[in-house]
Amino acid sequence: MDVIFHEAALRSVPKSVKNPEEFHEVNATATLHLLKLAHENRVRRVVYASSSSVYGQCRLPQKETMLLFPQSPYAASKVAGEVYCQMFTRLYGLQTVGLRYFNVFGPRQSLENQYAVVVPRFVTCLLKKQPLPIYGDGLQTRDFTYVENVVQANLKAATAPKSAGEVFNIACGSQHSVRKLAEILQKKIGIHTPPQWKGLRPGDVKHTRADISKAQRLLGYRPQVTFKDGLDRTIDWFRENHRRWDKS
User: Fold this and answer.
1) Which of 6, 34, 69, 167 has the fewest other C-beta atoms within 10 Å?
2) From 74, 84, 101, 221, active-site residue
3) Shortest CA distance to 27 belongs to which of 5, 48, 1?
4) 166-170 and 95-101 as β-strands: parallel, antiparallel, unpaired?
5) How confident is the model at residue 90 (pLDDT cuts 50, 70, 90)?
6) pTM for this one?
């Protein structure tokens, strides 16, 4: 095995608040086991899926040189995975690259009950003419990143020289509020439903926006699909595959 793309994780911030031990076991301990086996089997490189949540609440744009202030067990488990990766590079010579994904969305995304992420949840709610669940005031902003951009980053991270032991922001370098997302989707789909206001979820950060200059410089990463084009592709997929989610 030449390269391992470590994408497996438990990923929900709210769920991690309720089950911190489980998230540590799956996201941190299992990552340690994977790195150990990769080293023993002489794997050249491990590309590790980290998260923008490691930053916590900090000034924008978020840069890889900033101190990390995780606000949830999920975020803390991702920090632990990053630290283990960097340690294995320094101590054992296993090449590792950490990619901090910023709010990935796209076709086939999970609609796991109340823990579903916002883009597929809003799209499917509108297509079924249901209210849009909005947590807090809806003014929180995210650097939404279409999945094809993330795939590009992974492939580049597998071979990029001078990237071993490094972490990179993978995003578009922009931000959109949840309320704005709702407005854009309503206009694109042509259906308007009222918001369903819910309480602010513990562990959520208020704003994210990435500085992607390091990934551009060392990985050659360039986002190819814009936020709005990605939304169009996502809407089209859910429309065409309604049988997969119409009972969710």
Assistant:
1) 69
2) 74
3) 48
4) parallel
5) very high
6) 0.94
